[in-house]
Amino acid sequence: MQPSSRVTIRDVAARAGVSVATVSKVINHRYGVAAETNARVLAVIEELGYEASLVAQSLRNHRTNVIGILVADIEPFSTELLKGAADAIRETGYELVVYSAGGRTGDNTGWERRYLSRLSGTLIDGAVLVTPTVVDVQYEAPIVAVDPHTGPSSLLTVDSDNLHGGRLATEHLLSLGHRRIAMLTGRADLQSAQLRERGYRQALSDAGVPVDEKLVRIGDYDPEIATAAARDLLSTEDRPTAVFGANDLSAIATIEVARELGLRVPEDLSVVGFDNVPESAFCTPPLTTVDQPIRRMGKRAVEDLIKLIRGEQPDTMHVTLETKLVVRQSARALS
Hints:
Blueprint: H1 9-16, H2 20-27, H3 35-48, H4 54-61, E1 66-71, H5 76-89, E2 95-100, H6 111-119, E3 126-130, E4 143-146, E5 156-160, H7 162-175, E6 181-185, H8 191-206, E7 216-218, H9 223-234, E8 242-245, H10 248-260, E9 270-275, H11 278-282, E10 288-291, H12 294-309, E11 318-321, E12 324-326
Parallel strand pairs: 1-2, 1-3, 3-4, 4-5, 5-11, 6-7, 6-8, 8-9, 9-10
Antiparallel strand pairs: 10-12
Helix pairs in contact: 1-2, 1-3, 5-12, 7-8, 9-10
């Protein structure tokens, strides 16, 4: 069976027995249509399942009431952020479209420019860029960047206090008596990851504990890379007593490696993560982690983007939300 073709405005007009111009007036809530005719046209629209083309609508009104969320991949961080975006969009009259490369960004610095180009100037009224690699993007509509690689820029940006969060994680392990504290760092090109590592180093320095560079390994926010790094760390004779993963997925990978090697968490090894994604609460044992309010970051980004679209000025061009420690069962005092 051939799929039915898209219902057009002409189909609606023919079924309702009115002109295309009359249907257009009904769709765009214009005056000059009798109540009975308006009701008949709306009934036909419902019956046929007619949806106005976003492109055609934008060409007429210069507005689509659609916001784009551009992400490199759909993973725990972006998933939580999208939940916050959905929270913000309710009852605003706007809709969301999510554009993802499915993780195929690799070495493709500047993916944001290509995504925005594909969406062109007729599909969305503004965009939220999630962890963009560059921020010197040119687009004829407002843009908000969440956790950009390079940190604050001329774009309105939303992130969390990564430096403080890195300190919180490390200070917690220090307070439990640990001194051989390893870190699985994040992506080297991402400023938030650099700040988390800086917080780790500052906390050790302030406690008078020298940083052992052999205990600092690249986790890259990637479970496979983190797994290899954790296995190397935990297989040495002078292994660390605690590991700080720069994100929860790295910390969870560390717990799994410890289990494979016959180490108990937290009895033999304490582990702390960063992000507080839902997976952190459901792993075994539940992960002590630093909460960055990802969902609230997504909500704030969309709220500020809508203000920009409406011509309003947000309170600030750079928003940094608080991070806090969430204590669960993956870390304990050193025996």
